[in-house]
Amino acid sequence: MTFPLNTWYVACTPDEIQAGPLGRQVCGERMVFYRGPEQQVVALEDFCPHRGAPLSLGRVCEGKLVCGYHGLEMGCEGKTVAMPGQRVRGFPAVRAFPAVERHGFIWVWPGDPAQANADLIPALHWAQNDEWAYGGGLYHIACDYRLMVDNLMDLTHETYVHSTSIGQPEIDETPCQTRVEGDEVITSRFMNGIKPPPFWQMALRMNGLPDDQLVDRWQICHFTPPSHVLIEVGVALAGHGGYDAPDSVKASSIVVDFITPETATSIHYFWGMARRFKPQDPALTDQIRQGQGNIFAEDQEMLERQQQNLLRWPDRQLLMLNIDAGGVQARRVIDRLIAAERTAPAAATV
Amino acid sequence: MTFPLNTWYVACTPDEIQAGPLGRQVCGERMVFYRGPEQQVVALEDFCPHRGAPLSLGRVCEGKLVCGYHGLEMGCEGKTVAMPGQRVRGFPAVRAFPAVERHGFIWVWPGDPAQANADLIPALHWAQNDEWAYGGGLYHIACDYRLMVDNLMDLTHETYVHSTSIGQPEIDETPCQTRVEGDEVITSRFMNGIKPPPFWQMALRMNGLPDDQLVDRWQICHFTPPSHVLIEVGVALAGHGGYDAPDSVKASSIVVDFITPETATSIHYFWGMARRFKPQDPALTDQIRQGQGNIFAEDQEMLERQQQNLLRWPDRQLLMLNIDAGGVQARRVIDRLIAAERTAPAAATV
Amino acid sequence: MTFPLNTWYVACTPDEIQAGPLGRQVCGERMVFYRGPEQQVVALEDFCPHRGAPLSLGRVCEGKLVCGYHGLEMGCEGKTVAMPGQRVRGFPAVRAFPAVERHGFIWVWPGDPAQANADLIPALHWAQNDEWAYGGGLYHIACDYRLMVDNLMDLTHETYVHSTSIGQPEIDETPCQTRVEGDEVITSRFMNGIKPPPFWQMALRMNGLPDDQLVDRWQICHFTPPSHVLIEVGVALAGHGGYDAPDSVKASSIVVDFITPETATSIHYFWGMARRFKPQDPALTDQIRQGQGNIFAEDQEMLERQQQNLLRWPDRQLLMLNIDAGGVQARRVIDRLIAAERTAPAAATV
């Protein structure tokens, strides 16, 4: 197992279960997500105990999940509650996974349900906050989730992969600092007195600021386990304090990345951006989402081809340079969590 | 081996070998089908003894199958009969499979040729009978052939999978009876005084009967090995005797299903409908074929996803409810035939 | 290993590396091809020692290959020469493969670099010679490279696979002669007083000769290891000496085939035609390339389906007829080379 199980992953968004049940594999488990009788989110094994059909091909009727093959009605605990013409008391149950809707996402705990604690879901101060706007999307990428963590914790790749949007040589030229605070890994880079790249020129204009002046730019990547990477990014007109400059001279936002393993070599990648400026402007949200979607699509081929190369040369050690410190430290946190699960009582994983 | 070999399967239709040889895998064997010198159907291994090219890429010339690579001429016994510039006497033979054209289909016996007996091909009273019309099609579905047998022997799925055409709640609500007569399994259901669903409303109109009155509806599924399911279906205006009502107040037909394993997890599914009304109306045949094709296409995703689930959870026992009795009994017949082949003399399988 | 490694294969054409680096797998090795600082061709493992990204996704900057992920700069010996903000002295090297540009192709030696000798690249008198014109293309085919050698050393297949262009019954009817001269295998066939097939009718017209007269036709296939097949082909008006007739009464050319194994069951197939008539007519070059491309595309399905059949029936012996002598002898040469590599000192393969 290359991922921890006793932790919360983003499984899907509310939009995705609006029209009916959603089948999605998370951490190797095939799950079905839907809303139960109190509109609460439910996650079950995507397997009908009658004949093994995927429950996600069915429909939700008054909060019960009705199998689309022969009409078995599944309850939100994973127990069959009814079936036409049948007594269902002895039917075997399917596994129910703890699931919680919070911050505009649906979170699932693929491990031991007894340990699931909704308080462990990260606090996201910008989520569903009127002063902030959020827009994002979902990509499926055929790579180990840790390659995406590496990608996001070492932004020097922007200079090469995203050279036409957010990349610029100064990212490469400016050293970064990495520190670990408990299970959090923070990599930060401050570039002062540089020209803003195209994406930030746009953001400056959207903030009513000039786009042709030198700026101080920052990138502060926060990894928290299992695989969340939130990146504080922004520019301020040069000489006003950079990250600490007053709002009137800066444009800033948070790049949001929730990386959910599907298998050992594929992920559901929930990406987005939270911004505090012009939060009531949905056209701007769409425009940023479009731009960000284009940028993150540039990573896809690189990550998938990197994954193929690593499978082809499994014995080669990769380098761990200073720029890789964020990813390296994040993997240490991940490894520690996995090791802790392995040594925990057998009951921990069903 | 999950299928019997010493039995007749439908391999293809005459149409499919009209323009030239047809390559098709049956029960794991790659075969080529074509017409020999007396127009008789021939089934051989699809392997040229010269360099291993598929013979099905060749053409038929005066009843000989000419390899499309270097012109080897194959005879209908699997022996090379000629090749330009060569003496072919010592060429190794390829396997010939017993093949028979009957009832508008081409049947193949993938097992021991010595045991092949054309009398074992099922009698189909409706086939090539002027009082009946037949129309059908062929689907390739990635599932174990027994999942399709299950599907056809438990029609409660119509309520869920085919809710817009032939499904209706009464199917679920009416118990079925299953009985076994030798190797035949029969599951029947009689629903009296119900509203006809859309497909049967159409059939009533085609028979010059009102489509807005209550009817008695029946479904009588006949499984015979290895994997043929013929279903007597129909409706009669309510109160005239149902299945036994006179022709003047009913619409009825036979749903025809020949399921031929390609591999352990894929099938060639020959489906169709034989009807005794308006047999000389080819437009009606086409209309029914179109409707039936749409209905059977609805099963495909369910069956393929069910198969994937069963491969993913190989150790889970499925339930065997009363509605599943037809499929369960059919599997017992199949298992008995497979066991008999295993204990037969080794010569039985080449 | 089913192919020799200490030999030269055609890897790509200069066109393919004009716009940037090219990733291509040769003999199971993932390689990147590009031009170094002196415009010389370079072949390296397609693996960045930093994080394993394919170097072929990068770009060439002043003869250095810059990784497209984080900017590592790779030198043409496989050693990292620079990386922004890093000391690279201790970085592990990647493998460099000897590569040479010659005769309009880029050749690579996938085996022991110490044994690579550019003098072993075949002399091609027609290449880059003003009296000759060359046009060709590249196909990817999913078959063992030896099946393509067989194909080209036994042209009786033209009668069947290419019946509408270059095939004609006389090929089948005329015996061929095969001889071995060292590592070269030569199969020749001379057909006198026959009607020219469509392709050669066109060539006769292009030479200002009548296309409706009998001709003497020849095919002389030259195999040289590892997998080059050059075929002298042509027609002369009948009775003027055939192959030895004066240029004024004949049309002739050389069919060029360089077959490069990608894996054990797939190839990069570089095909083309060199002609000595109207060499300065690029429209004619295009026309011939188009026609030849259509002809060679006819082989693709046959070879791929033959390969699938051989994988399905791995234990069947193929026949070795007189027409197969060219392929059989070529395989003996290949086997001898592979055996020699196996018994060579271990240093021979890295």
Automatic annotation (TrEMBL), chains A, B, C:
InterPro entries: Cholesterol_7-desaturase (IPR050584), Rieske_2Fe-2S (IPR017941), Rieske_2Fe-2S_sf (IPR036922), VanA_C_cat (IPR044043). Pfam families: Rieske, VanA_C. Residues 8-108 form the Rieske domain. Keywords: 2Fe-2S, Dioxygenase, Iron, Iron-sulfur, Metal-binding, Oxidoreductase. GO terms for molecular function: dioxygenase activity. SUPFAM superfamilies: Bet v1-like (SSF55961), ISP domain (SSF50022). CDD domains: RHO_alpha_C_DMO-like (cd08878). This is Aromatic ring-hydroxylating dioxygenase subunit alpha. It comes from Curvibacter cyanobacteriorum.
